[in-house]
Write a structure and sequence with these properties.
The complex is a heterodimer of chains A (about 375) and B (about 230).
Chain A (H helix, E strand, L loop, with lengths): L3 H8 L1 H32 L1 H4 L5 E5 L11 E2 L1 H7 L4 E15 L5 E9 L11 E3 L10 E5 L14 E4 L2 E9 L10 E5 H7 L6 E2 L1 E6 L5 H11 L3 E5 H15 L2 H30 L1 H9 L4 H36 L8 H18 L1 H8 L10
Parallel strand pairs in A: 4-9, 6-8
Antiparallel strand pairs in A: 1-11, 1-12, 2-10, 3-4, 3-11, 5-8, 6-9, 7-8
Chain B lengths: L6 E12 L6 E12 L3 E5 L6 H8 L7 E6 L2 E2 L8 H8 E4 L11 H11 L4 H14 L15 H12 L6 E5 L7 H16 L4 E5 L11 E6 L2 E3 L5
Parallel strand pairs in B: 3-8, 3-9, 6-7, 7-8
Antiparallel strand pairs in B: 1-2, 1-4, 4-5, 9-10
Helix pairs in contact in B: 3-4, 3-5, 4-5, 5-6
The chains are: A alpha+beta (about 375), B alpha/beta (about 230).
Chain lengths: ~375, ~230
């Protein structure tokens, strides 16, 4: 069958290029913004999501992971006494000031874990032995923060909160969302380096014993241990994500830009398809005269929209790939799982179909006398 | 093939009024016609006399304000809008003054697309399109776009397209209006042969006095009213 839609589209190359540019732009904007949003959302809870813990015990009234407050480590022992707790470990998160070789100071977040159990330890060591954090004030940092922290190599020394520290290794994939780099060390080192008083912890991480559910053990801990908050890992992860994405407006801002891309893309494509329809209106009238039904005309317009969307999506994805590679070189994450890409494709098709609505109205009301005007 | 001398198109007291009230315009007034297969009929008249309106009424592109239009025994003037495309697909072929070819399609594809509309598919459509173009002498120009064809060639493609699906009625709106006299006569010969040799009704609106000799009958219309003309 002759595809009038395809022939018309490719015959007018300039108009086709304009439509493609509009769709590709929209696809890039939507893809990158959603990818950044998903990466940010995943990043804010990266430490929560990479521990083995099933339950997190925190100070009362905590809003999110990054604002942890200390509480008595006696709570640890109370937690350990709750039936269904396989193990419980202290975990510390505290702010500090890292001194760079130039003398400036960078705010950092110290993460203190137990090197004997390795609960809460960084999960992707790229250099060094994580057991080295047992040594006095030995620390690890994420390789993506190397420039920021002053390019101090492994074995090099600096200060945190005016106390000497030695870089023992590097990790990957543990970049902080709030832009204060994570510094990994032992719990005791972190306590020494921070302003948290001895005898305190900031979190207690809990593993649920076989035969028990997280919700069940969570409830038991709540009933047993006073003046703390208790969350499952997924609840705490979501709470932290929601805080940064919704309460601060960061997520809304990212998604708003994505929505803007969608609107701009729709407007450009609608304008292009409509002007194309207007220019070809006599052809549509002729088709009607020779026996095409309205649905035959709609099919042509819809086919044009689908072709536009498929090719525009492909071009947009190719451009998005380049953008993603650029982001990665800048150590910025973009997350684009396959279901999301599929969703963006469907959105692109819907955008182009929606853009065709005006054209469909136009061909429905063609004046038959039009075909008799030379 | 339609049988010669059979009435294929009948208009009974057909009128068409555009607009309402004081701004109403009666483009066609009380026209009655019995048109037979195998005839080549001209309709002539000044600009604004109702020629195009009458053509659209005959081709089911317009619904009459009063009166009836029959194609064979089917009253088409009262059919629902959604059923009229079928009538046009099966019964009527149109030829336009401005050719109205699809510029992005080759000559072959222009005819093939029309055949697709009429139910032909794949290779069958392509072969039939080639045959139709060969009938009008364009077998060597099938792969050319309209922009590469002369006026006469474009109109011959339009004729081939109008024949797609073998309609018994051909309605032509000034098909020689944009052609030189020689090419105009060529087109007129083709249309006359469609009527006389293939038994179709060919109804042509024309201003062109150079080709009136081809007609079996000339009808004249003025101010929407039909007047008797010359007969064969």
């Amino acid at each position: 069958m002759v595809s009038i839609a395809r022939k018309n589209l490719f015959h007018d190359k300039v108009r086709f290029a304009v439509a493609l540019a509009g769709i590709s732009f929209a696809v890039v904007l939507i893809t990158v913004q959603i990818g950044v949003y998903l990466a940010f959302r995943s990043n804010v809870s990266v430490l929560i999501d990479h521990t083995e813990a099933d339950i997190w015990v925190t100070a009362h009234g905590l809003e999110n992971f990054d604002f942890g407050r200390p509480f008595s480590e006696k709570k640890l022992y109370e937690v350990r006494s709750v039936p269904g707790v396989a193990w419980a470990e202290k975990y510390l998160l505290a702010f500090g000031y890292w001194k760079t070789p130039s003398g400036s100071q960078e705010t950092v977040q110290m993460v203190g874990f137990d090197p004997d159990t390795m609960v809460g330890a960084p999960w992707n060591i790229v250099a060094g032995n994580p057991q080295d954090v047992k040594y006095f004030n030995s620390v690890f940092y994420d390789e993506a923060e190397t420039n920021r922290l002053g390019n101090i190599p492994i074995g090099g020394e600096t200060e945190i909160n005016s106390r000497r520290v030695r870089v023992a290794g590097m990790v990957r994939g543990a970049r902080s969302f709030i832009q204060s780099p994570y510094i990994f060390t032992s719990f005791n080192n972190a306590l020494n380096l921070s302003f948290v008083n001895k005898g305190n912890t900031v979190y207690v991480l809990v593993k649920v014993a076989p035969g028990y559910t997280s919700q069940d053990v969570k409830q038991r801990i709540r009933e047993t241990v006073k003046d703390v908050e208790v969350f499952t890992s997924s609840e705490f992860s979501k709470k932290t994500q929601d805080y940064w994405m919704i309460n601060t407006g960061t997520g809304v801002a990212l998604l708003a830009v994505a929505l803007m891309g969608l609107v701009i893309g729709t407007v450009i494509v609608a304008n292009t398809i409509y002007t194309s329809t207007a220019e070809h209106i006599k052809e549509f009238g002729t088709l009607k005269a020779i026996g095409a039904s309205n649905w035959d005309l709609y099919r042509i317009i819809i086919e044009q929209a689908v072709i536009n969307s498929v090719i525009g999506f492909a071009v947009g994805m190719a451009m998005s790939y380049l953008v993603v590679q650029g982001f990665k070189r800048g150590h910025l994450q973009i997350l684009l799982p396959t279901p999301v890409l599929t969703g963006i494709f469907i959105l692109t098709v819907l955008m182009c179909l929606w853009s065709s609505v005006l054209s469909i109205f136009k061909v429905t009301r063609i004046d038959p006398a039009l075909v008799f005007k030379s | 093939m339609p049988i010669a001398t059979q009435t294929v198109l009948r208009l009974d007291h057909v009128s068409k009024i555009y607009g309402e009230g004081e701004s109403a315009v009666e483009a066609v007034h009380d026209v009655s016609l019995d048109l037979e297969a195998g005839r080549f009929i001209f309709l002539m008249g000044p600009s604004g006399s109702g020629k195009t309106t009458l053509l659209m009424l005959m081709g089911c592109l317009l619904r009459p304000t009063s009166g009836t239009v029959h194609i064979f025994d089917e009253e088409v003037s009262s059919l629902a809008e959604a059923r009229l495309p079928r009538v046009r697909r099966e019964r009527v072929g149109f030829i336009f003054q401005g050719f109205n070819l699809f510029p992005a399609l080759t000559a072959l594809e222009n005819v093939e697309a029309t055949l697709n509309l009429k139910g032909y598919r794949g290779e069958a459509a392509r072969v039939e399109a080639g045959n139709l173009l060969a009938r009008v002498g364009l077998e060597k120009r099938v792969d050319h776009l309209p922009e590469d064809l002369s006026g006469g060639e474009k109109q011959r493609v339009a004729v081939a397209r109008a024949l797609a699906g073998n309609p018994p009625i051909i309605l032509a709106d000034e098909p020689t209006g944009m052609l030189d006299s020689k090419t105009g006569r060529l087109i007129s010969e083709i249309l006359r042969d469609l009527a006389h040799r293939e038994g179709r009704l060919v109804f042509m609106v024309s201003h062109d006095f150079r080709i009136t000799s081809f007609a079996d009958e000339i009808l004249r219309i003025e101010d929407g009213c039909l007047k008797e003309g010359d007969r064969d």
